[in-house]
Amino acid sequence: MNTYKTETQHANKTIRQQGNTWNSIDPENIARMRLQNRFRTGLDIASFTAKIMREDMDRYDKDPVNYTQSLGCWHGFIGQQKMISIKKHFGSTRSRYLYLSGWMVAAMRSEFGPLPDQSMHEKTSVPSLIEELYTFLKQADARELQHLYVELDAATGYGDQLKIKATQNKIDNFETHVVPIIADIDAGFGNEEATYLLAKKMIEAGACCIQIENQVSDAKQCGHQDGKVTVPHEDFLAKINAVRYAFMELGVEDGVIVARTDSLGAGLTQKIPVSQYPGDLAEQYNAYIDGEKVTSISELNSGDMALKIGEKLIKPTRLANGLVRFKPDTGEDRVVLDCITSLQNGADLLWIETEKPHIGQIADMVNRIREVVPNAKLVYNNSPSFNWTLNFRQQVFDAWQIDGKDLSDYNREQLMSQQYDDTDLAAEADEKIRCFQKDAAQQAGIFHHLITLPTYHTAALSTDNLTKDYFGEQGMLGYVSEVQRKEIRQGLACVKHQDMSGSNMGDEHKEYFSGSQALKASGESNTMNQFS
Question: Domain range for residue 508?
Answer without folding.
Answer: 472-518
